[in-house]
Amino acid sequence: MNQVLKNKKQKIKMVVIGGGTGLPVLLTQLKKHDVDLTAIVTVADDGGSSGIIRNHVNIIPPGDIRNCLIALSDLPTIYKDIFQYRFDSKDDFFSGHAIGNLVITAIADMRGSVFEAVKLLSTMMAVNGKIYAAAEEPLTLIAEFVDGTVVRGESKIAKSRKTIDRVYVKPLDEEKEAHAAREVINSIEEADIILIGPGSLYTSILPNLMISDLGQAVLRAKAEVVYICNIMTQLGETENFSDADHVRVLHKHMQQKFINTVLVNTERVPDAVLNQQADEEYLLQVTHDFQALREEGCRVISADYLDMKNGGVYHDGSKVATEVMNLITNMPISYKYKP
Predict the structure, then answer these.
(1) Which Gene Ontology CC terms are recorded (predicted)?
(2) Would you list the domain boundaries of the chain?
């Protein structure tokens, strides 16, 4: 490792932006490394237990935050399992709800905000890092399709099976603009490296970046910005996409080429798995266009990041975390430690 890194006491400040199932997989592995880790989590989820709680209590959806708390917690497994337990009851109220979602909601009600709830739970659960909701109020994800139609609600977008032109977010009162918390902006401005993804492009990643002050903070950041590209395309979102198409969409939405480095999986997904997902979340493997990525101003790091488990296709969090740490080691000193 670079001698400067050995001698420097200050930890690398790493910010991870995303949501869905990919974010906690990566956080679980990154916390094993000696970094100052912050997770910024989407608040536009309106499906499942989170959506029901959001609609009844007018609170940001707790599901992704719950999973990040578990990912960064150093508690024994039995306590994590309790927090993650999802009721399998036929009771109209409890059915499908995770205990952790109810706990987050209750403490938010006690303390007056989800921010305070997560702060308290982070202490109680021995969380190794910081977790921030991207905004302190629930947001509606809105998609405009190339045919001019508009759909409101994250859970409805993919079901429309139309080509998306752009997405954006609005508070429940659409006359207002969405804003990120000051702590979110500060963490981005102070970051040495910003990881975006892995996660659904339109419904897990862009909902964060479309919060205007959050997105602008990413554009202003002096950090290395790394996009962890999805391994598979998704029905109703990124059908027929290459890795370069993912980056083009990000750059189009932000109106600036801001991704410095892209991590791309090049390991082949077995044919038996392709287009066999019961929930129809996946379609085919993302194709590669390294020349187009370079034209977007990106450095490309390609390797085997594939993890096949439970019949599904995932990023191997350990491999990705190791790659990120290798990237940090080789970053210019100006990225690593600013005066």
Answers:
(1) cytoplasm
(2) 3-42+134-336, 47-130
